Every structure is written in structure tokens, then in C-alpha cells.
Amino acid sequence: MAVQKTTPPPPAAFVKVSMDGAPYLRKVDLKLYNSYSDLSESLGKMFSSFTIGMKDFMSESKLVDILNGSEYVPSYEDKDGDWMLVGDVPWEMFVESCKRLRIMKGSEAIGLAPRAVEKCKSRS
């Protein structure tokens, strides 16, 4: 009987996740998710005690803080140390380049990426 070679599973891509105002961090394996939608649903559950809910990052929905109604924006640090908005690059590129995630207050996200500036202008 021939021995079958199985391909090993891809290495995990663990990243730390923090949320402004939350007293704890979480760690997620990005390789377990297939899209921004999957990740956003999971993060919404992880930080549910601090948010009303989180929808798909790609639909540009925002987290809303229960206490004061401030908006939150998911961002990430890439391999170069730059902070970017989640959803600005294709999913596969995001998984390969993400070092850590931060769900930050929208007011702090201004200037992170062009999309943040456009959002700010559309509110005025």
C-alpha cells in the first residue's frame, strides 16, 4: 500500500486585535477567515459588549459605541509599519501584510488612507 502525502495546512496568521476603549486584546488567525465579511462578523462578536454591532467592512458600515455613539473604524498595521484602513486592499493581500488590527475612533482615522478623507468630507 502506497503512503499518501498530504499537504500540511498553511501556517497560521495570528494578529492581535485592539479596540479603543476596550480593556482587553484579542488574537485572531486571519487564515481562518475567507473574506472581510467573515472577519468583521467575528470581531463584532468579540467586542459585542462595546458595540451595537459591526457589519461588513467592505460596505463601509461602522461600529457604534453604546455609551456615546462615536463611530469606530477598523484599521491595520502592515509589514512596513504603516496604518491602513481595513478593506482598502484585496483580502489575500491584507492577510499577507497585516501585522495587527486596531478598531479606532473614526476621528483618529482621518488621514490613514484616501477613503478616510472622503468619508470625512461627505459628513460635512
Automatic annotation (TrEMBL):
Q: What is its main location?
A: nucleus
Q: Cite the SUPFAM superfamilies for this sequence.
A: CAD & PB1 domains
The cellular component terms of Gene Ontology attached to this UniProt record, alphabetical and capped at eight, are: nucleus
Pfam families (alphabetical): AUX_IAA
> Where located?
Nucleus
UniProt keywords, alphabetically: Auxin signaling pathway, Nucleus, Repressor, Transcription, Transcription regulation
A GO BP term here is: regulation of DNA-templated transcription
Top-level division of the source organism's lineage? Eukaryota
Residues forming the PB1 domain are 12-106
Q: What does this protein do?
A: Aux/IAA proteins are short-lived transcriptional factors that function as repressors of early auxin response genes at low auxin concentrations. Repression is thought to result from the interaction with auxin response factors (ARFs), proteins that bind to the auxin-responsive promoter element (AuxRE). Formation of heterodimers with ARF proteins may alter their ability to modulate early auxin response genes expression.
Q: Which family does it belong to?
A: Belongs to the Aux/IAA family.
Complex and partners: Homodimers and heterodimers.
Name recorded for this polypeptide? Auxin-responsive protein
Whose protein is this, by species? Linum tenue
